[in-house]
Write a structure and sequence with these properties.
Blueprint lengths: L4 H17 L1 H5 L4 E7 L3 H17 L2 E7 L5 H12 L6 E4 L9 H7 L11 H8 L11 H12 L8 E5 L6 H10 L3 E5 L6 H5 L4 E4 L17 E4 L3 E2 L5 E2 L4 H4 L5 E2 L6 H24 L1
Parallel strand pairs: 1-2, 1-3, 4-5, 4-6, 6-7, 7-10
Antiparallel strand pairs: 8-9
Helix pairs in contact: 1-11, 3-11, 7-8, 7-11
Length: 287
């Protein structure tokens, strides 16, 4: 089964749009997402445009602050502090990567936990790893979307052996924790892992988030495995591809996500649901 993240995301965004349409009567307004984009990275520009389109579909208010490459770290942090105190703003997202002279760590730590729609704030990370899933804990968008993709395919996670390629704070580590919470047995692999193919061939669920085009080939995959491709790479012809060599892996997989049209649309979809979560937390707290 090829899982279409594009189709699932469209379905979920339509459901969210119906929910958001009730907010003006209930709460007096709709959610407001603010994105900060520093520099002119083409990929980041595309991502931000896609997020703006998703906000329009779901019915959010959205604002994008586009700052030049030479913007100082202090200017970015000052803008975040200003947005933290703005009661009309429910979610703040700073598009990564940032120019080298700006500390991503400082930026993430400065965003209010209550407005951290990416789920990267240390306090959100702590709640995730302390096994305290609750309405105040925002889960990173891509891992959240991966779980929803597996659920949509009716793939049973409990009891399965999962292998995660990559240990980033954005995908590898949080998806490992979410799979653990669903009772999978999880192995995290990385660039120093020895005998990698032997390990990946044992995986019932294989999540590829290693950032290398077509790295995972058919001989590395167990027959009948669920393969989730998080990669956004360019192949030798400059064409978009994933970390998985789809042509050789697809015949062996019971479930697989394509690139494009797999995990990517679900990441943006989960950003929308995280924004709703932050909005409702604020409104219900007020009540």
């Amino acid at each position: 089964m090829i899982i279409s993240g594009k189709e699932l995301a469209a379905k979920l965004k339509a459901e969210m749009a119906e929910q958001v349409a009730t907010f003006p009567e209930k709460y007096g307004r709709v959610p407001h997402l603010v994105v900060i984009l520093v520099g002119n990275d083409p990929g980041s520009q595309t991502y931000v445009r896609n997020k703006e389109k998703a906000c329009d579909v779901v019915g959010f208010n959205h604002t994008t602050f586009r700052m030049p490459e030479e913007t100082t770290e202090k200017e970015v942090l000052d803008k975040i502090v200003e947005l933290n105190s703005d009661d009309s703003v429910d979610g703040i997202l700073v598009q990564l990567p940032l120019p080298r002279h700006i500390s991503e760590t400082k930026v993430i730590e400065t965003i209010s936990k209550e407005k951290d729609v990416d789920g990267f704030h240390p306090l959100n990370t702590a709640e995730l790893w302390q096994k305290r899933p609750n309405d105040s804990c925002v889960v990173p968008c891509t891992p959240k979307g991966i779980i929803q993709l597996l659920d949509a395919a009716d793939y049973k996670i409990s009891g399965k052996r999962a292998v995660v390629l990559g240990r980033s704070q954005i995908v590898g580590l949080p998806i490992s924790k979410l799979l653990l919470d669903r009772n999978a047995t999880v192995t995290i692999c990385h660039s120093r892992t020895e005998n990698l193919p032997e390990i990946t061939r044992q995986a019932d669920i294989l999540v590829a988030a290693i950032g290398k085009a077509k790295f995972v080939t058919g001989d590395m995959v167990k027959e009948g495995a669920a393969v989730i491709d998080v990669g956004m790479d360019l192949d030798e012809n400059g064409k978009l591809c994933g970390d998985v060599d789809f042509a050789s892996v697809e015949p062996k997989a019971s479930v697989i996500t394509p690139v494009p049209g797999g995990v990517g649309p679900m990441t943006i979809c989960c950003l929308m649901s995280n924004t709703i979560q932050c909005f409702l937390n604020k409104m219900l707290y007020k009540e």
